[in-house]
Amino acid sequence: MKRLAVTLGVWAGCCLNAWAQTSPLPTLSAAEPMRFPVKVERIESVAVDGKGNAWFCDRGALAVLGFTPEGKALGSIKPPNGFQNPLLMSIEGDRLAVEDTNALLYLFSLPDGKEVGHLGPISLYNPAMGFLLTPHRYMFFGRGCRKESDIPTETSPGRTMTLFSTDLKGKDLVAAEEGTSTEEQLLSTMLFDQGYGVRWSDTLWAVTKCLPRQVKLVDEKGTVSKRSEPLGTLPKVTMADVTDLERQASISHSAPRVCGLLKVGKLLGILWQKPRPQEPQLEMEWMDGDLKVLGTTPVRLPSPLAPHDHILGAAANDRGTLYLVLVHRTGSMADPGTSTVYKVKVDLKG
Prior knowledge:
This protein has 4 helices and 25 strands. Strands 1, 2, 23, 24 and 25 form a 5-stranded antiparallel beta sheet that branches. It has helices spanning 2-22, 183-190, 239-242, 245-252; strands spanning 27-28, 32-33, 43-48, 54-58, 63-67, 73-77, 86-92, 95-100, 104-109, 115-119, 131-133, 137-140, 158-167, 174-181, 195-199, 205-209, 216-218, 224-227, 257-264, 267-273, 282-287, 293-298, 310-316, 321-328, 338-347. 12% of the residues lie in helices and 41% in strands. It is mostly beta strands and 350 residues long. The model is unreliable at 1-21 (pLDDT under 50).
C-alpha cells in the first residue's frame, strides 16, 4: 500500500508538471491606440492603482493625468511649485511617487493628488534608472554610491550599489547588492541599467534590469529570496559612446532588451523589445512564481516599430488591460519625440 501511494504521488506530480508545461499562456489582443478624453502632450510612463485606474506621466504638460478603466478623466496631479521634468512613477496603495529631474521624488496621495512628502535632491544615485515605492521604503535599481569617493574613475575602481533602498525620508540606506566596479563596467551598464519592478505578493516584489534580464523576488529592503537565470548580454560601451547622443541612440537600440515587468494574474510578464529585422519586435515572456519561463507571446502593434522607437512604459491592471507607452524619435536622444499609448486586452484563460 505504501509503495502504491508513492507511485500515485509520483504519477500525480508528473501529471501536474506536464499540465504546467502545456497549459495555455495568456493571449493578447492586437494593440489599439488609447483615446484620451482630454488633451495629452508627451506621455512618458504609466502606473496603475488598486482600483484599475491608469496614471500617466505627461512630460509635455508637466503633470500626472489619471483615468478610470472606462477612460473617464480623474484630473491632474502636480506639486505646488510644479514639476520640472517628470519621468517615472510608482504606486503603492493610495500613494503615488513621481521622479522629477533625476534628483527629486515627490509623494502624493490618491486620488486627490495632495503632496504628502518629497525626497531629495539626490546626488549619489539616480531614481530615473528605476525605483519602486513600497509601504515604508523606496527601492532603487540603478547604480548608486554611498559617498562621492566611491564613484569609479578611469584610474581607480569604486564601490557601487546595484539594488538598494532607503526609508521614505532618504535615511536608513540598505544595500542588498553592492560590490567593486570599474569605470569600464559602469559605462557598459549605463545605457542598459534601467530597472523595472512590480509588486508580486503581500511581502515580495519582482525586479529586473533592462540587460541582462534576471528576475529577482525581493522583500521591501531588496533582500533577494529567489532569482531566475540571467538572459542577454551587455554590448560594450566606451566613454566616447556615452558622450555622443547619436552613438547612444544607436547602441541602445542594437540589442534585445527588457522594457517592462508586469504582474498579470498569477504570472509575471517580461516585455522585450527586439531590434529590426527580428520578429516579433515586441514579445511578452511569461514566468511563474518559481521564476520558470513558461513561453512567449507576441505583442502586435498596428504598424512596425521605426528604428528609434522605444517602449518607455508598461503597466497592467487586474481587469486584464495592458498599457504600453511608445515614444517615437527621429534618431537623436536629444529629440524628446512624440508618444502613443496603446491598450492591449489580456485573456488569462488562453
